[in-house]
Structure formats: structure tokens, C-alpha cells
Amino acid sequence: EVQLVESGGGLVQPGGSLRLSCVASGFTFDDFVMSWVRQAPGKGLEWVSNIDWSGENTYYAESMERRFTISRDNAKNTLYLQMNNLKPDDTAVYYCATFGIGSWGQGTQVTVSS
């Protein structure tokens, strides 16, 4: 069974940082591109970032580039998203996903508020 389990969300003040993690199981993790996607309250899904199987190639939505860093540890089957200089507009549920299999995690809530 494919499973993606996110953690690391929470409440943070504007300008703060959080590091999200996503532990994968049930498939060969390093065979797949991994992604982060988010959904803000009352809005649709928004793609955040992708990382290729090796971790050498990363891609970001324009509004998140230079603030967010995606990475992966294939030995630990874990995907990360380091988020710095967070803004209230970053408030959302963050999901990790592997589109190649069509699997998503349950999401982790990130709230940016003073």
C-alpha cells in the first residue's frame, strides 16, 4: 500500500520558518519525482514545487522561489520542504504527492499569523 505521511506544520508568525517532512512507503521512492502542493482556505490546489528522483533538479512556483527549498533523502524515503520568510498568504494545507502513482498524503496545516 502506497502511503505518504506529512508532518511539521503548525502556527508560525510572519517571517518565520517551518520544515515539512513527508515519509513515503509502499513504492520505490527514488524512482519517482516528488511534489508539494497546497490548498489555501476556500481556494483550489496550487502546485508548490517538484524534485526529481536524484534531488539534483528542483522546480518552484514563482511566488515561492527563493523562500522555499525542496529536498529529499532517498535513504530515508523522506521528502522535505523548508519554508522561510513565511507570509500570511502561505497559510494552507500542504500535501506531498507523487503524480506518477497518483498518490497524495493527508496533508499538514500551515498557518501564518501574528
Features of this protein?
single chain; mainly beta; seven-stranded mixed β-sheet; four-stranded antiparallel β-sheet; 11 strands
Structure overview:
The chain is an all-beta fold and 114 residues long. The chain contains no helices and eleven strands. Strands 2, 4, 5, 6, 9, 10 and 11 form a seven-stranded mixed beta sheet that branches. Strands 1-3-8-7 form a four-stranded antiparallel beta sheet, with no helix packed on it. The chain is globular, with a radius of gyration of 13 Å. The chain starts with a strand and ends with a strand.
Architecture blueprint of SSEs:
Blueprint: E1 3-7, E2 10-12, E3 18-25, E4 34-39, E5 45-51, E6 58-60, E7 68-73, E8 78-83, E9 92-98, E10 103-104, E11 108-112
- Which structural class is indicated by helix and strand composition? mainly beta
Measure the end-to-end span: 40 Å
Helix content: under 10%
Mean pLDDT: 96
Q: How would a crystallographer describe the biggest sheet?
A: 7 strands, mixed
Round the Cα radius of gyration to an integer and report it. 13 Å
Order of helices and strands: EEEEEEEEEEE
